[in-house]
Amino acid sequence: MFMRIRTSALTALTVAALAVGAGLTAPAAGAAPKTAAPKFLSASQLPPHPKSSWTAGPVTEGFPEALGFCVSTEGVLDYDYRHRVFRTDLDTSAVQLTVVTGTAAQAKALAKHYDDLIRTCADRIEKSSPDVEAEGRDYGKLPVEEGARVRGLHTETSRGATDIALLSVGRDGRTVTVVQWGQMGDFKSAPVAAFKKTTSTAVDKLR
């Protein structure tokens, strides 16, 4: 599925993320202090799967590898990262990241940085992996807290393997969340309306 696209592409995109995020780099001393963990989505708040129920993993410290294809920590502060991975019994999976920054201004800049990485991800995939065709779509903003945006990403390899992902970035105060849903398929199989609801719930729970 989307999170398993070739390692060579992942390596190239990590380098690209480093370059894009250079403007957010600062000494480690400026990192946000530890704080109470924001609340995470529960399994029941993910887009319903027609043939399998969701299982939620534990909330874990650090940045999730499953999210590192389009979004990474390269070039940004050593923030307080936590994540939760969700799975079904079939080919669908999801992950949520929360990032607690030092100020609302830092959170605003970080949310824009992550959204920019997602927005440009399709182009970076095609440049790094000539055998992969990628298309991104913008599903618009959501009026929740300080705002959120939902995007889609479809990839197809020269061998015919297709994967679809929905990704969103939202912010409340100095906390940012990124949510990713993915499975085999194309844009027609993406539960956009349900994912928008999931994103709104995720941002609401940051309070």
TrEMBL record:
It comes from the Bacteria. Residues 1-31 form the signal peptide. Keywords: Signal. This is PknH-like extracellular domain-containing protein.
